[in-house]
Write a structure and sequence with these properties.
This protein starts with a strand and ends in a 12-residue tail after the last helix. It has helices at 10-14, 18-28, 42-48, 58-65, 80-88, 101-105, 120-131; strands at 2-8, 31-38, 70-77, 114-116. It has 143 residues and is an alpha+beta fold. Helix content is 40%, strand content 18%. A 4-stranded antiparallel β-sheet has the order 2-3-1-4, sandwiched between helices. It has a domain at 2-37 and 70-131: Alpha-Beta Plaits (2-Layer Sandwich), CATH 3.30.70.141. The structure holds adenosine-3',5'-cyclic-monophosphate. Adenosine-3',5'-cyclic-monophosphate binds at residues 52, 57, 60-61, 91, 109-110, 112, 115.
């Protein structure tokens, strides 16, 4: 079984989309293995998006990711990385077809509601970055 890392980004959390997104993954057949509501700091955002460090939008991307709470999740299933990416839709919401998460809930590439790992190797790297050794734990936060 494969695992993938999925994160509802600050605009998704602000717009009340966590439940809808979790529901789509459950209905598709994924198993939830970890979930954590958190406010990430700049060093973690910069490590997570390290491969985009030289891109012109890197600063904007880090500002956005640290602008509010995110919901980090670990989902398990057959071909989890590829199946998650097809549920999520194209990176640019303009190209994401209706029925996908970005196709239904996002308008702009800079705030595209959700992140999904692009390879099994990156999935494991991102899971350790966000969950350490405790990806199996479910975290419940109260204010
Ligand atoms: P994500 O799938 O999380 O991975 C990298 C992110 O970079 C991507 O989603 C987008 O949110 C962001 N991104 C990609 N292209 C641009 C762009 N041209 N301007 C701003 N953000 C971008």
């Amino acid at each position: 079984m494969e695992r993938t890392f999925v994160m509802v980004k600050p605009d998704g959390v602000r717009n009340g989309l966590i439940g809808d997104i979790v529901s789509r993954f459950e209905k598709k057949g994924f198993t939830l293995r970890g979930i954590k509501l958190m406010h990430i700091d700049r060093p973690l955002a910069e490590r997570h998006y390290g491969e985009h460090r030289e891109k012109p939008f890197f600063g904007e991307l880090v500002d956005y990711l640290t602008s509010g709470e995110v919901c980090a999740m670990v989902w398990e299933g057959k071909h989890a990385v590829a199946n998650a990416r097809s549920l999520i839709g194209k990176t640019n919401p303009v190209e994401a077809v209706p029925g996908t998460i970005r196709g239904d809930f996002a308008m702009d590439v800079a705030s595209n509601v959700v992140h999904g790992s692009d390879s099994p190797e990156n999935a494991e790297r991102e899971i350790s970055l966000f969950f350490g050794d405790s990806a199996a734990a479910v975290y419940l936060f109260t204010s």
